[in-house]
Amino acid sequence: MFRAMTDQTADIRIPLELLPADGRFGSGPSKVRVESLRALAETGTSYMGTSHRQKTVKDVVARARRGMAELLGLPDGYEVLLGNGGATAFWDIAGFRLVRDHSHHAVFGEFSSKFAQALEQAPHIATVTTDESAPGTHPVLTAQAGADAYALTQNETSTGVCMPVARPAGADPDALVLVDATSGAGGMHVDPAEFDVYYLSPQKALASDGGLWLAACSPRALERIDDLADRWCPASLDLLIARDNSVKDQTYNTPALATIFLLVEQVEWILGQGGLQWAAARTGESSGVLYDWADAHDLATPFVADPAMRSPVVVTIDLDERVDATALCAVLRANGVVDTDAYRKLGRNQIRVATFPAVTPDDVRHLTACLDYVIEQIAE
After folding, report:
1. Are 163 and 135 in contact (CB under 8 A)?
2. Cα–Cα dist 119/150, whole Å
3. Are 268 and 67 in contact, with CB atoms under 8 Å apart?
4. CA distance 297 to 301
5. Do 68 and 155 belong to one domain?
6. CB-based contact 262:29 (threshold 8 Å)
7. CATH number at residue 349
């Protein structure tokens, strides 16, 4: 399997009536709504190419912080912080200002494992422990004696597995719950009472671009940042500096202005449609179309066996060996339906489809029609 695209498959043309209106189904960078791009262009000379320390930009940063707080339903006392570097950088940031000595991680895919690995390499973190499970499942995060931070991943983008955001039973009341929400935020329900830091980069469900991190922090997390103020930290990774700048509606160093603008456009669009409840219903509808299709198809199976663990925002579907997923995705791409490829390191004969809020359920329905058509052409 996994053959190169042949001349025969290269000539397959999907009937126009089957094609989605927008064929972008990438899991990150994800589909950015055309309306958001137009809104950015319409700012003309007033926003892009201006100083990030001036009111024009700081007003947009303020909208981003307010919008995220409203979208997540943050209680009084929580702060939305932001800075440059993305969620990957935030793993190092957390190691300096949020984890005292011992972090405990739920590990069940590529991205959840990387946070644990980052802290294992940090010389100032004494202990890193894990609860692990095989790709396609998630573990139960158990309380650990001495753990002062618990790391959860709301949605494992590499495998299409989601896990509940909940404080581990029996955990030290002072322990922080840190949630990687990069592909879940804006498309999945969450209760702020169950986390202390809900961090993300906005190039997935929030339909922006990479290179920025945002973190919704509880009062307990803000206190931890102060408690660890004496620990040396590079300025670019210092949550003390990030907090001092964020409350002034700015970042420590120059951000990508387009990224912040597109983030605001997506957050305010979701709020205008009905907020997180609306977004979660929409992603549930779209992902349900794909799971139902796979359940009913003779040559396809949802990779995540337990329906309770199936992600509503990233759908992974295994294909029978008679269908070469690489060839299938190549045909789709040649017809304008893009980024349905499996996560490379997982190494399975499967497709992976993002059903973030920007993706319409109707386009997902058209995608299944395209899958039917192409599979019929290429199945052995």
Report:
1. no
2. 12
3. yes
4. 7
5. yes
6. no
7. 3.90.1150.10
Beta-carbon contacts of 170 under 8 Å, excluding residues fewer than 6 positions away, are: 142, 143
Are 266 and 259 in contact by the 8 Å Cβ rule? The answer is: no
Final residue belonging to a domain, choices 230, 249, 272: 272
Domain final residue, candidates 256, 272, 288: 272
Give the amino acid at 16. Answer: L
DSSP-derived letter for residue 264 is H
In tens, the pLDDT along 350-375 reads: 999 999 999 999 999 999 999 999 99
Which ranges of the chain have pLDDT less than 70?
Answer: 1-10
Q: For residue 23, give its domain range.
A: 7-33+276-378
Whether 258 and 48 have beta carbons less than 8 Å apart is answered as: yes
Tokens coding 286: 């779209």
d(CA 59, CA 66): 10
**Across the chain, where does the E strand assignment appear?**
79-84, 102-107, 127-132, 149-153, 155-156, 161-162, 176-180, 197-200, 212-217, 300-302, 314-319, 350-354
Of residues 234, 190, 194, 28, the one with CA closest to residue 111: 28
Give me the torsion for CA of 220, 225, 226, 228, rounded to 10°: 120
Q: CA distances (Å), 67 to each of 265, 276, 282, in order?
A: 10, 11, 19
Q: In degrees, to the nearest 5, what angle opens at C-alpha 57 toward C-alphas 53 and 59?
A: 110
What pTM did the predictor assign? Answer: 0.96
**What number of H helices and E strands is found in the chain?**
11, 12
Q: Report CA-CA distances (Å) from 62 to 73, 249, 332.
A: 16, 5, 40
For residue 272, the surrounding DSSP H or E stretch is helix 257-273
